[in-house]
Amino acid sequence: MQNKSIWLEGYNELDYEIINKDQICDVLIIGGGITGLSTLYNLKNSKLNIILADASLIAHGLSGHTTGKINYLQELIYSDILKKYNYETAKLYYESQIDSINKIKEIIKKEKINCDLEKVTSYLYTNKENEIEKIKKEKELLNSFGANIKEENKEIPYINYLYAIKAINTYVFHPVKYLLALKEICLKSNKKIYEKTKITNILKEGEYYICKANNFKIKAKKIIIASHYPSFLFPYFFPIKANIEKSYISASLSKKRDITAINSKKPTISIRYHKNWLIYLTNSSNISNNINEKKNYLDHLNKIKKLNLKAEYIWKNDDIITLDKIPYIGSLKKEDNTFLIGTGYNTWGMTNGTLASLILSDLILGKVNKYTTLCNPLRVINLKNTKDIIINLFSNSKGYLESKINKNKDWYENIEFKNNLAIYKEKNQEYIVYNKCPHMGCSLIFNEIDKTWDCPCHASRFTKEGICIKGPSTKDIKYK
Ligand SMILES: Cc1cc2nc3c(=O)[nH]c(=O)nc-3n(C[C@H](O)[C@H](O)[C@H](O)COP(=O)(O)OP(=O)(O)OC[C@H]3O[C@@H](n4cnc5c(N)ncnc54)[C@H](O)[C@@H]3O)c2cc1C
Question: Where does ligand 1 bind, in terms of residues with CB under 6 Å?
């Protein structure tokens, strides 16, 4: 069994270019996941000089670790939006998802991308009595928007349910094949893509943003933050507007079926098939909870075993959950389209990352987009959301406080803490790091499975040697 995403299998030796001199451009896109690459793709025929920089490799972030569903049946999201806003807003979000699904299909068809796109039937189900009414309401709401959602009574493999509904026009694909194809198309259109190129500082000087990129500078008139969680706190102070949800996913050999399924209530169970692989997701929780990763990992494997399956790949992923279940896409500065962001996809980033690319490319080109107001990241957080803000702050601080107080976890085997340092011992060797995430100062949790230091507040990750391998932190925690 391999501790890696099935989507990254076979992509160990990719060609890439690292920045090797200072650069000036019209637009700098920071991040080469579905948001950044789809935006670059939409802008590929413009005369703008555009650079995309990724700290790692294209598609190796969250987009390379998803379940790869392209789906508008997203738990109870439309009822949630209806509660927080109104019918029109819920309907507009539905339309945004349909448009995004159509956009992905259109790109795949036009560019003849071989990324295993398949039409599937998707189920939303529950095995709890008190959830049935909620799912029925979601069905009615979706049908009032024009969707064709029906009840299901037949058996759904690997799923025990009391009540389920189904949608037929939904899809699955291989996210890494899709993104690597977009990369090739953009390179052929003479757009620059730098990988292993981390942006660590952004300063505004006159009409340019000056960005530190490894040991070089990129001067850009406009910036698009497509890096998932933004590394900076201001403007915007993101931590009070979102929390992070993590889950474990595995791939086991199984009979192929053209379905996906997800339950309506956390903790999430989600399935899809890819060729003869069953992709199974469990153990979802707020990143600040269930911080013993070895336990989560073993727990997931136990669940797989009970289904008589054998996981060949296992990995974890995390995504940003917004307060109102609508993504944050657009300008971070009022009446100024030079500093843009696309994030907060509530675990539905294949559609919402594509939606972001449509909004962001229109903002860059000065075009009107139907969904700009819906997703405006500066939208006023209304009073209906106060409870959510408090819950969000509480759950986020829980990670911070727990990381500070309870350092000597009883599950740690080879870890020692000394003042502000943490020491991991392996085969007579000591790896010493600063036990503080450079992003917002949380203490770190040692992940016994991947041998990494993970931040329980905002999901930054560091190798045992202290090198930052995942943001929002842009700095290492190396000691000497
Ligand atoms: C368990 C799980 C399952 C999911 N399954 C689905 C699904 O089936 N369908 C669906 O629609 N969505 C799904 N999602 C959500 C989806 O995976 C994400 O929303 C989406 O991949 C986010 O894309 P992104 O482009 O914003 O981020 P990423 O793909 O992470 O891209 C961001 C990139 O920015 C780079 N970066 C970060 N910091 C810097 C920096 N300082 N300088 C330069 N580059 C930087 C990173 O290296 C990374 O490559 C799932 C999420 C989870 C947690």
Answer: 30-36, 53-56, 60-63, 66-69, 198-199, 226-228, 231, 247, 249, 281, 317-319, 343, 345, 347-351, 353, 471, 474
- pTM of the full structure: 0.96
Host domain of residue 126: 74-81+113-172+240-322
252 with 157, same domain: the answer is yes
Whether residue 154 sits in one domain with residue 289: yes
Extract the tokens encoding 459: 């999901």
Rounded Cα–Cα distance for residues 244 and 456 (Å) = 9
Q: Check pLDDT > 90 for residue 347.
A: yes
Overall number of domains in the chain: 2
**Is pLDDT at 406 greater than 60 in this prediction?**
no
Nearest CA to ligand 1 atom 41: 199
Mutate to test the pocket of ligand 1, among 228, 273, 314, 468 (most ligand atoms within 8 A of CB): 228
Helices 129-145 and 87-110, packing angle to 10 deg: 70
Kindly report the number of other CB atoms within 10 A of residue 164's CB atom.
Answer: 22
What does the pLDDT look like over 182-200, one tens digit per residue? 999 999 999 999 999 999 9
Determine the atom of ligand 1 nearest the C-alpha atom of 352. Answer: 11
Within-domain flag for 224? no
